[in-house]
Structure formats: C-alpha cells, structure tokens
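BUG: 3D viewer hangs when loading the predicted structure for this chain

Environment: internal workstation, default settings.
Expected: structure renders.
Actual: progress bar stalls at 90%.

Input used:
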Amino acid sequence: MLLVWSNLEIFEMWAHEIEYSNELSMSFVDLVLLWSLTKHGKDNTKLKFRLADTGSGIYLVAGAIVIAIVQLLIYNGMGYTSTGDLAGEHLAHYCEFAFEVISALIAFWFSVDNKFVADKEIFEIMSVVLGNLKCLAISSSFLF
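Structure tokens produced before the viewer hung:
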C-alpha cells in the first residue's frame, strides 16, 4: 500500500507481484488450516463436514495453490500492452477473486469448527464447576 501511495506509476507492478506472491504463501497457510481440521481420527467430536470425510478438502487447497500459481503466470506471462502495462493484469484480478473466495471458505470452516470445539470445552468446564458446587452444597447441609 505504501508503494502504491508513494508513486502508483512506478510501483504498481511491484505491488501486484508482492500481492500475488503473498497469495501463494497464503495457500500454504490454508493447507495447514485444512490439515488441522482433518488430522483427528473418526472418533473425535469436532465438526467435520463431508469435505473432511471424503478428502475433497485437499482438492480445495490444491485448487487454491493452482490458482495462485496460474495468477502469477497470467500476470507475468501475457506480455505488455501498448501503454507499457502488463496485459494479464485484468485476468489476474479474476484469479485473485477466485483464490480469495476459496481462502475465505477455508478460514470460515476453521473458525466455525473451533467455535464448536470451544463451546464443548466450556460446557465440560462448567459441568465440572457446577458438579463441584452441588457436592459442596450437599456436604455443607450435613454440617448443620
């Protein structure tokens, strides 16, 4: 952002290169998030959509990685326009949108899954606390 703000004509191409390369690294973060969603065995109680059970979640991440690579290839490989800009910029923005949708779906899936896990943990903690309070109330009633 600072590059574009300082001088758009000079740094626009570099800003796109940084952004599209960052999307490639983001796809590997998506892979880690997906792995954490599917690493547990069948007996766990984590929320597991059919994506995790069928293994098609891997295809989702693989698609994100392919889109990120294709985006870089389109942006850099389609040559230049008559004005000196890169010809693939417009098409690369379509790839960017598709990648961001996939990445957002994986992040949302991860967040919802962890919300259910946190709710279960809170319920277990509160069950123990309330159980201890009941035991304390019963034992104190015997004293009087």
